[in-house]
Amino acid sequence: MSIYRNGPHTVTVYLEEGGTDSYGNFVRRPSTTGVVVAGCLVHPVASTRGAFPAIDVRLGQQVDATWKLVCDDLVPLGWWSRVEWAAAGGAPIPLMRLTVLSGPLLRRVTRTTSHITCTLQEER
């Protein structure tokens, strides 16, 4: 049993699917129905200013927050997936729509510590 199945957060993952756009080209996109995944850990990583020092917020450039998602290795997360997360416990964070920025990386050393990590960025 993985130690990453008991996290405090619940997310909704919209799986990646394939389809065609209006021009007939094959495109990948998040599906319209989500899968609820409980027991995850979502925590902030950095703003764009910290991750990319060339961006300067004093010049009016937008700062996007990035988040790290750590969850069990059975979560159906893909590169084109979308994640929705609402912080519980009275936190002032509204429902957030997040896109995959890097990952998902499967980490499988032992059965107890196997998990997926993924960096997410707020969708604007």
Number of strands: 6
Task: Identify the CATH class.
Answer: Mainly Beta
CATH fold type: Thrombin, subunit H
In CATH terms, the superfamily is Bacteriophage SPP1 head-tail adaptor protein
Rg from Cα: 16 Å
- Secondary structure: helix percent: under 10%
Describe this structure in words.
It is a single chain. It is built from one helix and six strands. With 124 residues, it is mostly beta strands. It has a single domain (3-122), classed as Thrombin, subunit H. The longest helix has 4 residues, at 48-51. The radius of gyration is 16 Å and the shape is globular.
Condensed summary:
The protein contains one helix and six strands. The chain has 124 residues and is mostly beta strands. Strand 1 and strand 2 form a beta hairpin.
Topology:
Blueprint: E1 9-20, E2 26-47, H1 48-51, E3 65-71, E4 82-85, E5 96-107, E6 115-122
Antiparallel strand pairs: 1-2, 1-4, 2-3, 3-6, 4-5, 5-6
What would the keywords be for this entry?
Thrombin, subunit H, six-stranded antiparallel β-barrel, 6 strands, single chain, 124 residues, 3% helix, mainly beta
